[in-house]
Sequence to fold (460 residues):
Amino acid sequence: MNFTAALAAQRQYFQSGATRPLAFRRMQLEKLSAALDRHEAPLLAALAADLRKSAYQAYATELGVVQAEIRTALKHLTRWATRLRCRTPWLVAPARGWVQPEPFGLVLIIGPWNYPLNLLLAPLVSAIAAGNCAVLKPSELAPHTASALTALMRETFAAEFVSVVHGGADVAAGLLRERFDKIFFTGSTRVGRAVLAGAAPHLTPVTLELGGKCPAIVCADAPVELAARRIAWGKFLNAGQTCVAPDFVLVQRGVRDRFLAALKNSLLAFYGADARRSADYGRIVNARHFARLVSYLRDGKVFHGGDNDATELYLAPTILTDVPPDAAVMQEEIFGPVLPVLEFDDLSEVVSRLQAAATPLALYLFAQNRTVEEKILAEVRSGGVCVNDVISHMIGTSLPFGGLGESGFGAYHGRAGFDAFSHQRSVLRQGSWLDLPFRYPPQRLSITTLKRALKFLLRG
Ligand code: NAD
Fold:
């Protein structure tokens, strides 16, 4: 597939300056918001077809999230885009300096299948707010959503401004051979590495929003029933196919049985005795992932759940206990409705275990003791953290959301998203009425005088 001509048209459109005025950006964001409302029914139907998301869940985790990003961007755009005045040193007097956020130009946004609308459009909102043109590459594993999204985009935006490219790994690899001014990738760590390698020849700046095994730690002093309910919600939302879902639980031995009982009760309360019949419980995206997830059932004792049906891609919310550390389910990101619950006695065991593991996207701690909280925050790294909750740190637009190490780098949401799609350009405007002589040769000052002078002249 050859993208060169289409991308050249987009680059030319960017270079025409059309996307730079704030009025243009606002108008596009308003158009996107209205289009999401107009296309709500087909988008919800597509999300149900791809992942059996209920309309309620699809609105809460996809369309509603994008609309919130649009509202925040519209409210704060003027402030975000305003140049930031900076003091300049006396040495360059009478200059003035500032930092001006500039659009990168043509950006590529590659999305995964688990929140196929949210994870393409929330970055797009930031890209538009920052004044860029964009190419969207939806996941081939959520084809209904990809088609519904393309229909929306074609109706809403000129192809020179925002285009959509369909396809799988080969198409994505072809896109990566082209030059973009910024790449924003959400997906697996494995593919993230390929994206970074693809960006290297062009030195394209990249944001990588990747996955990993997000641990949940439940200490003996935590409100155990509340912890179980919140973990059950965050884990089994979208049938566990959520990048920030708790991947496994480390529970302190004394409260283990109470925690397991509460977890099971929460699952029964949420989805009933047969989750297959619950409108709020999703399905696995495809047969390959289904087979992978079912294979994990052999990795421990099934404490709850385990029922599955390949014809429906249904796997019940499942709790595993007695899982050995070298089991496959403890090596790979689970990304499905299987929750291993492991025990610990002492917090130092937890710290050394997590320090030895890849840095996760999120870390969850349930504890009342602030010293424990400070110890975990200081000694265990992660992209983000929730204390006494799960997932809530990435809800809304006020906290930046992103990973660290194997879970990626860079962040977005709200202001952080605008910054992710902006180059912070430093500008210095020099005056002409003064021209300090120190810089020009021949130099007459001694080093001693220079040292003394610079203390004053370079004062920050
Ligand atoms: P994936 O990495 O398999 O695919 C993501 C996207 O990359 C798809 O659009 C795919 O077509 C494309 N792609 C495939 N090969 C490519 C290549 N060689 N070069 C460029 N692009 C390529 O991920 P997935 O299975 O769609 O999603 C699941 C993963 O995404 C999980 O690891 C999950 O944790 C992660 N994830 C992270 C976040 C986050 O915000 N950090 C959010 C959701 C999902």
About this structure: The first strand starts at residue 84 and ends at 86. The mean pLDDT is 97.
